[in-house]
Write a structure and sequence with these properties.
The strands form seven sheets. The protein has a seven-stranded mixed sheet with strand order 12-11-10-14-19-16-17, with no helix packed on it. A five-stranded mixed sheet has the order 1-4-9-8-6. The chain has a five-stranded mixed sheet with strand order 13-21-20-15-18. The protein is built from seven helices and 33 strands. By secondary structure, the protein is mainly beta.
Length: about 550
């Protein structure tokens, strides 16, 4: 054990009594691991970095579990780059299947973006060279193998990528990696009944609502603890879940000050008591620990289909934070960086992206979820009354408007009969008769079309602003929508102005039953062989068609 870890552990044990009762009971029931801190990987003297995707073993609850990682068994290092300095990354695939590495959040040319075209076969390698030219930010990298992205991320392939620039370097923000500048990668996992495998299935249920787990990992550990400097603490937060949205808060309700979103620092800090995070989103927050009191970072229950099952039906601690006697040196500036004003949108090229799910997939996915998890999965809806209720209430939306149909009419079944049906008949039977074969793999679509890697949907002009409207109208599901090759500005989110902490640089926008508008501009080129992607970052939606490619010339 390193000396720093020993000091942290000693402080943690001494401060544990200050945590809420339910946190202390969890700590007593299971020995708390120390928070794993990813290695900070920087280019060598030749500007080279080596990244190897490989299989390994992780241990959870005393069981060895096969996992995948970069340069290790699980997750990966945090790659740190400098704005304006070229880097060469050598990627080796030691996995039993093809993969890609996508630099999520980086504004780089299509040929190095790492989309689904950039396959690296087993025991093969790929070398990419690029020069990051964007503001300081916390980005990440992960696989983008079409049809297998959800599986490969669930196995553990993900890592942070940090970009530094001179402007942010002048601010007195916490900068001591692993001490007052802490990475927090949050992912839910579902293990097999014997706890020895990650139980991932891309089936009709997950294609509809996404794959979700019953265990939360923080940097790959279950409810770890960390000792931190006393003062301002910087948390670099990543929602690395396949499909689960989070709502982060502190157990004692001390405020969080958001200083950065996906693409970089905000103009000024934004004080929040709760921070909702979509899959794939990053935020940087500062928390004041100068009182020396221990507290938890926790996630609160959210209204999202399938995501209300135990233990996520109540506040769930994800990280125990124990302030040390050592004083931190960072501060919370009143002013961060200059974020340019949003230019006028009159006369800009406009694009419309309509997100839809095949009604058959929607219907069968809901039936499968009810069969497996019961009414607790319906986000608070009493399914016994489903025949008389607006199905849209399950996710806070009017599902009855979907494609102009009553949900009860979908697939020719009477939804109202559900209360009297045997659960065993719900997923694969239609009133006792076998359902016809249905291929759900193209069941999610954009503008009525499932993803076609060989046919980009449109071409954007390099360096020119465009206004994109992404519509989830008539669809009951949450869609965290991600665009490659750019950091955009949100004009409206679900029909409303963006919240203050979402008004900076972003690469994911929330779409849920309404329209969201973003202002995009692409500074690099992407040809048809290396098209950029735009897709739902609920990974099972992406893997089953809710993605399109586009070029930039």
């Amino acid at each position: 054990m390193q000396r720093r870890d020993f000091i942290k552990l000693s402080a943690a044990l001494g401060a544990a009594s200050a945590l809420p009762l339910w946190s202390r009971s969890l700590m007593a029931a299971e020995q708390r691991p120390l928070l794993p801190i990813p290695t900070l990987l920087t280019p060598d003297a030749r500007s080279e970095i080596t990244l190897t995707a490989q299989a390994g073993i992780s241990n959870w609850r005393g069981k060895n579990v096969p996992t995948w990682g970069y340069n290790g068994s699980l997750l990966g290092p945090a790659i740190q780059l400098e704005r304006g300095k070229e880097v060469n990354i050598n990627i080796h695939n030691r996995l039993p299947e093809a993969t890609t590495v996508h630099w999520h959040g980086l504004e780089v040319p299509g040929e190095v973006d790492g989309g689904p075209q950039a396959r690296i076969e087993p025991n093969k390698s790929r070398r990419v060279t690029f020069t990051p030219d964007q503001p300081a930010s916390t980005c990440w990298f992960h696989p983008h193998q079409h049809g297998r992205t959800g599986y490969q991320v669930s196995q553990g392939l993900a890592g942070l990528m940090l970009i530094n620039d001179p402007e942010s370097g002048k601010l007195l923000l916490p900068k001591q990696w692993g001490i007052d500048d802490i990475p927090v990668i949050l992912q839910d996992k579902r293990l097999s009944s014997d706890g020895t495998q990650i139980d991932y299935q891309l089936d009709i249920m997950s294609a509809a609502v996404g794959w979700f787990g019953d265990t939360m990992l923080t940097n790959g550990a279950i409810y770890p603890q960390t000792g931190v400097s006393r003062g301002w603490l910087r948390l670099r937060l990543l929602n690395g879940c396949n499909a689960r949205s989070l709502n982060l808060t502190t157990s004692d309700r001390r405020p969080m000050y958001v200083i950065a979103s996906d693409g970089g620092l905000l103009a000024e800090p934004v004080k929040l008591s709760e921070l909702p995070m979509l899959p794939g989103e990053r935020f940087e927050v500062l928390v004041d620990t100068s009182d020396g009191k221990a507290f938890d970072l926790q996630t609160l229950p959210v209204r999202q289909m399938g995501m209300t099952l135990q233990p996520f039906d109540q506040p769930l601690p994800v990280l125990a934070i124990m302030p040390l006697r050592v004083l931190a040196s960072g501060s919370l500036p009143d002013k961060l960086v200059d974020v340019p004003a949003i230019p006028a949108t009159d006369g800009l090229k406009s694009r419309w992206l309509q997100l839809t799910m095949d009604p058959e997939l929607d219907h069968r996915g809901m039936m499968a979820m009810m069969q497996k998890h019961g009414k607790a999965s319906m986000a608070g809806m009493d399914h016994g009354d489903m025949s008389g209720m607006d199905h849209g209430n399950m996710a806070g939306m009017d599902h009855g408007n979907m494609s102009g149909m009553k949900h009860g009419d979908m697939a020719g079944t009477d939804h109202g009969d559900m209360a009297g049906m045997k659960h065993g008949d719900m997923a694969g039977m239609n009133h006792g008769k076998p359902a016809k074969e249905y291929d759900f793999h193209d069941g999610n679509r954009i503008n009525g079309v499932a993803f076609n890697m060989d046919k980009p949907s449109f071409e954007a002009k390099q360096g020119e602003y465009e206004k994109w409207t992404i519509s989830g109208e008539g669809d009951m599901m949450l869609h965290p929508f991600h665009v490659h090759g750019t950091q955009f500005r949100i004009l409206s989110e679900n029909g409303k102005p963006p919240a203050a902490h979402r008004s900076g640089w972003k690469d994911i926008v929330e779409v849920e039953g309404a329209r969201s508008e973003v202002l995009v501009r692409f500074n690099h080129k992407a040809d048809a062989a290396n098209a950029y992607m735009a897709h739902c970052h609920l990974l099972e939606h992406e893997d089953t068609g809710m993605m399109l490619g586009f070029t930039v010339a």
